[in-house]
């Protein structure tokens, strides 16, 4: 695709909003790169923009409502002549609903059609580009403008999903599994590192399925090994690996190279064998417990994140008790707890014995309380330790505090390290040794001791 060096237009300010997952954010960054290369300007002020673009999420009803709210806000705040462009997952499955509710949307882009953003902008009349390509993988020379802080970025290595979990409609939204060839992954990785990115976060709907659709069947371990063959100090973080995909080979890689953050996002959803089977999950309670045990034994400082669901059809109080007992006996550092959402196109929507919202909420509260008790106790072990922390910025709630992360905290989704004594901090973002002095729920509190930049590799291991 050719890009004009400068589009001759007075209407050249664009506002972007990206909703949903990090994979959506990568797609939004591709659109950002394309419009910047074409000569447009980016603004964060809605009332200044000539074009307002929202990349929507359509995974759950709550996500769709957030997308609708963003479009509504655009029409409330925009200039009279400004045009609204709606892209992404919600367009792919619910375009007619959006058209009915917002008849003055200028253009629709499907979740696999983000490369047509310039076509949408220059179109004189309303239109759409919604193809059968339900997901997007950047390719070739398509530009990408990072929107994350300069020290970390996401690298999407696959899209779509090969699994058929009963509660999930991702395969219907994003389509079949599509893995990015390893040479393209390596090219993008090198580009990120050359821009100064120090933490590369590998993402996909399911990292463990990477490569199963490719002719040569090269899997995740091959990708990681190749990236680790690159010289330099960087971190690799792995998000979204199912328990059955955490292999001995992967654990060996984590042990052998400290550049892999000792951190895994391992969604398990439940622990009752009956519920797991109803959810069409591939692992049993015993397999999950064994996987956690193997990780703890071989990577002693590993931090695990997972997601748990309460309120799946026919779930009993005894099965919620079983879930709480699991949390207490096999503590996990970060747990995202969700109430079951009945999606019309999911297999589980047809199951009997759906649970009312009030009961779901009560179960959510019980599990969340149990997890908070576990994490409060577990975080006590950090008090008195001196750990490497990348101090990133001022605290969002106070200009007198700084905040950062250690290797066990992923951006945006986990807790943070709050720095209440920053006298030794000269630059951010920068790696510092921090002494932990207290805890506050999911957050750690500490004082900066010394800079670790140029004195050690980017090894954030506790």
TrEMBL record:
- Residues binding [4Fe-4S] cluster 1 are 21, 57, 89
| Cofactor(s) the protein requires to work | [4Fe-4S] cluster
- Listed EC numbers: 2.8.4.4
Major location, coarse class? cytoplasm
Using the record's annotation, list all stretches that form the TRAM domain.
380-450
Q: How is the cofactor bound?
A: Binds 2 [4Fe-4S] clusters. One cluster is coordinated with 3 cysteines and an exchangeable S-adenosyl-L-methionine.
Q: Where in the cell is it found?
A: Cytoplasm
InterPro entries, alphabetically? Elp3/MiaA/NifB-like_rSAM, Methylthiotransferase, Methylthiotransferase_CS, Methylthiotransferase_N, Methylthiotransferase_N_sf, NA-bd_OB-fold, Ribosomal_uS12_MeSTrfase_RimO, rSAM
The segment(s) forming the MTTase N-terminal domain are 12-126
Q: Which NCBIfam families match?
A: 30S ribosomal protein S12 methylthiotransferase RimO, MiaB/RimO family radical SAM methylthiotransferase
Q: What is this protein called in UniProt?
A: Ribosomal protein uS12 methylthiotransferase RimO
Protein's gene: rimO
């Amino acid at each position: 695709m050719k890009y004009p060096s400068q589009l001759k237009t007075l209407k050249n300010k664009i506002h972007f909003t990206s909703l949903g997952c990090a994979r959506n954010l990568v797609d939004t960054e591709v659109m950002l790169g394309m419009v910047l290369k074409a000569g447009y300007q980016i603004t964060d002020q809605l009332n200044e923009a000539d074009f307002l673009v929202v990349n929507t999420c359509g995974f759950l009803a709550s996500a769709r409502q957030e997308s609708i709210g963003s479009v509504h806000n655009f029409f409330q705040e925009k200039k009279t002549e400004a045009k609204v462009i709606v892209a992404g997952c919600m367009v792919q499955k619910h375009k007619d609903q959006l058209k009915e509710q917002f008849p003055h949307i200028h253009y629709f882009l499907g979740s696999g059609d983000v490369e047509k953003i310039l076509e949408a902008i220059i179109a004189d009349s309303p239109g759409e580009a919604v193809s059968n390509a339900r997901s997007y993988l950047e390719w070739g020379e398509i530009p990408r403008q990072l929107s994350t802080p300069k020290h970390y970025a996401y690298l999407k290595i696959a899209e779509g999903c090969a699994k058929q979990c009963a509660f999930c409609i991702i395969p219907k939204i994003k389509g079949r599994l599509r893995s990015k060839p390893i040479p393209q992954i390596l090219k993008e990785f090198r580009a990120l590192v050359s821009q100064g990115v120090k933490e590369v976060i590998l993402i996909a709907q399911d990292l463990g399925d990477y490569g199963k659709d490719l002719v040569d069947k090269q899997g995740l371990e091959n990708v990681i090994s190749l990236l680790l063959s690159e010289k330099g100090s960087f971190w690799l973080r792995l998000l979204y690996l199912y328990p059955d995909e955490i292999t001995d080979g992967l654990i060996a890689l984590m042990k052998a190279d400290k550049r892999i953050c000792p951190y895994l996002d391992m969604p398990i959803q439940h622990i009752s064998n009956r519920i797991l089977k109803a959810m069409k999950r591939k692992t049993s309670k015993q397999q999950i417990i064994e996987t956690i045990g193997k990780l703890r034994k071989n990577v002693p400082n590993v931090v695990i994140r997972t997601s748990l669901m309460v309120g799946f059809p026919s779930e009993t109080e005894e099965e919620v008790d079983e879930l709480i007992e699991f949390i207490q006996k096999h503590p996990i550092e970060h747990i995202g707890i969700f109430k079951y959402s009945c999606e019309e196109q999911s297999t589980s929507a047809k199951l009997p014995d759906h649970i009312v919202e009030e009961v779901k909420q009560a179960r959510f509260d019980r599990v969340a309380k149990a997890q908070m008790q576990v994490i409060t106790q577990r975080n006590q072990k950090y008090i008195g330790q001196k750990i490497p922390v990348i101090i990133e910025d001022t605290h969002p709630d106070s200009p007198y505090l700084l905040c950062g992360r250690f290797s066990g905290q992923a951006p945006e989704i986990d807790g943070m390290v709050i720095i209440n004594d920053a006298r030794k901090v000269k630059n951010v973002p920068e790696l510092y040794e921090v002494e932990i002095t207290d805890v506050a729920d999911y957050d750690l509190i500490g004082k900066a001791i010394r800079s670790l930049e140029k004195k050690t590799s980017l090894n954030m291991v506790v």
